[in-house]
């Protein structure tokens, strides 16, 4: 089962009939983290009329949303629905409202809160958790530049390099290329380099929509 979540944190502002709405999206991995983000936003905007929120952490079966004093069903639920429709988890979204003196009515509130959440999510982007493999490449000095040039053809992150009797590189690569990259390095070095798999890590990869 794929897991979708925000790609990054975001903050946007939206004005509706003189009321100022501020939308924040945070990536969180526990209900405790979500509560901390809500508290932080509340402290930052202690003069606000309302700090509405919604969050979901599927690993803890925790789904919560709050109208924060707005009429029931006009704030927290519309925010939550924006994320539910996208199938997201591991998120916390807050929408802070500074009342502008003009009543929006139930329908107006629902549209304003939903639109703020939508804009905040668009700014954050959506990512899917994908498996990445941490591997260690051990090679002789003459093969180092050959391997480095070969790696340029692949998505990778060099996490650590040690220059001792031989050279050891710790890199992180998408799981889908592990076998191909390993075979390529062994072929380039006539089997003299060693590629050791260390661990699998899950990392968010942004979903690009056309």
What does this structure look like?
This protein has 210 residues and is α+β, with helices and mostly antiparallel strands. It folds into 2 domains: 4-124, Ribosomal Protein S5, domain 2; 129-206, Alpha-Beta Plaits, CATH 3.30.70.240. Helix content is 32%, strand content 39%. The protein has 5 helices and 10 strands, in the order E-E-E-H-E-E-H-E-H-E-H-E-E-H-E. Helix 2 packs across helix 3. It is elongated and about 75 Å long. It starts with a strand and ends with a strand. The mean pLDDT is 94.
- Provide the CATH topology of the largest domain: Ribosomal Protein S5, domain 2
Q: How many structurally independent domains? A: 2
Spatial separation of the terminal alpha carbons: 23 Å
Q: Given the structure, what is the number of helices?
A: 5
- Provide the CATH top-level class of the largest domain: Alpha Beta
Secondary-structure element string? EEEHEEHEHEHEEHE
Average pLDDT, rounded to a whole number, is 94
